[in-house]
Amino acid sequence: MPHASSSKVCKYDIFLSFRGEDTRRTFVSHLCKALEQRGIHTFKDDERLEAGKSISAELLKAIEDARFAVVIFSKSYASSRWCLEELAHIIKCKKELHTS
């Protein structure tokens, strides 16, 4: 998303940010399936991050390569360091998009 113009071709239509243990097998899997059925290319991280590890460069790149980000807040979203890092990067990309 940084330094993007309206004509930028994005790898994903939507990046889903969610707390896996809360929503992966319920809401998120149903949402992702419904979006894909409608031709909306969605990035959903299927890896489980080990406690204390940082967000991966590939995940940050997926945020940058998505046209939109959808943040799914849940009971323990804010207690996840990884989720908060994703959210901070989403906000950073959005700000950079509007200042370029």
UniProtKB/TrEMBL annotation:
Record carries keyword NAD: yes
PROSITE patterns according to UniProt: TIR (PS50104)
InterPro entries linked: TIR_dom, Toll_tir_struct_dom_sf
A Pfam family annotated for this UniProt entry: TIR
Domain TIR: 10-100
Annotated signal peptide: none
Superkingdom of origin organism: Eukaryota
Biological-process GO terms, alphabetical: signal transduction
Cellular component GO terms, alphabetical: nucleus
The name this protein goes by in its record: Resistance gene analog NBS7
Organism: Solanum tuberosum (Potato)
